[in-house]
Amino acid sequence: MAKQPMLKFVTTQREMPAKREADVRNRDFAEIYAEYADQKAKEQASRCSQCGVPYCQSHCPLHNNIPDWLNLTATGRLQEAYEISQATNTFPEICGRICPQDRLCEGNCVIEQSGHGTVTIGSVEKYITDTAWEEGWVKPAAPEVERKESVGIIGAGPGGLAAADMLRRAGVQVTVYDRYDRSGGLLTYGIPGFKLEKEVVMRRNKQLEAGGVRFVMNCSVGEDMSFEEIRAQHDAVIIATGVYKSRDLGGPGAGAKGIVKAIDYLTASNRVANFGDTVAEYDSGELNAKGKKVVVIGGGDTAMDCVRTAIRQGAESVKCLYRRDRANMPGSQREVQNAEEEGVQFEWLTAPAGFKSGEADAVDSVIVQKMRLGAPDASGRQSPEVIEGSDYDEPADLVIKALGFEPEELPTLWGCPELEVTRWGTVKAQFTSGRTALEGVYAVGDIVRGASLVVWAIRDGRDCAEAILGDLNSRAAAIAAE
């Protein structure tokens, strides 16, 4: 009788890939986790209970067929595991690295709820796809039939690139327009290399280009090219710009030098550390934490990226202010743990009330208010309340605002007032298809949802590509019938 390859969670303990020691990894921007060896990947995949209702799959935005590719990995059928993995996910090696699995698939694992420790789904997913690249199983698009229709995609982030890949594989002519010099959006310039190595992103960009996707870089819509020009050149247009407008912070002294936006800080760091670019603001010290007392304001994943980047740049100290407690922060708990190991100090239940400046109007401290959690708000989370008289000064040479992102005013920037937006500034579009009220114009990702996860942008891009293919087919059938 064949030995049961699965259900080993009772006898085999959960084991993540080895993590480099904190006092070593906090000196560079390299990946902090080692790769699973083949036997270890099989062992950890074999812990899956193959439950009848896979909550891991239902809580994955892409509804990845996780139980099946875990089973295939455990039984040594790795190429088949990759085929199943990439069938629903355009970038599985990226999701395996940066998805908050503790809040999605792994956080809903049945064996975790029974006290045995979740299956390490993200690490196995990463191993499967990294192996697929090494073995040459990952192929660029090679459509059997080329179609004459073309689609223009504004924004080279995960949503736009996912749509580009799906459309190109169907034979559609695809052009991607982006304001930056490298494609990838926040994957390239927002997320640090120690979470997502840049060669992983560049490899996908090259694959898309090899498959026939055309990239027009350094193209700012509304300046270098109008929205109407792009619409005129294509049968359909996808808006996938993401949200890049940083939420601001008021209070006395908020305009002092040394108070910077997270996106500017992370972009400069990624350019210098990962691509060797020269960035004047980094060289001048404006966007460089070396030797400084750093205070980061915010509790999301962007704040975690900032604090861990500052440590690696050689900051004298790094503190993170967040107005709620640890249990109520939006960022990944795994990221908080990594940051603490690397030397970051978290000041829970604190918020800035203002800033004080020293010489040359440069910030030298943050006025910090202590908070407590009061009654729940409309979302059900307890609202932070100020504890009167609890203010204190926190010394700071560099303050990084990581308060989240909002949409830019696209109708104004693009001279297209008929492009409908919500009261939050996001583009009005159908969630399932991305269709807007404008003929042939679609929108996906954060510009529709607001700031969200990469995995949701990928889901939106794939869904939108499917809807566009359906619309193009319907249009072609109608013309043929005339």
TrEMBL record:
Pfam families: Fer4_20, Pyr_redox_2. Residues 151-461 form the FAD/NAD(P)-binding domain. Gene3D superfamilies: Alpha-helical ferredoxin, FAD/NAD(P)-binding domain. Keywords: 4Fe-4S, Iron, Iron-sulfur, Metal-binding, Oxidoreductase. InterPro entries: DPD_II, FAD/NAD-bd_sf, FAD/NAD-binding_dom, GltD-like, Helical_ferredxn. SUPFAM superfamilies: alpha-helical ferredoxin (SSF46548), Nucleotide-binding domain (SSF51971). It comes from the Bacteria. Residues 26-136 form the Dihydroprymidine dehydrogenase domain. NCBIfam families: gltD_gamma_fam (TIGR01318). This is FAD-dependent oxidoreductase.
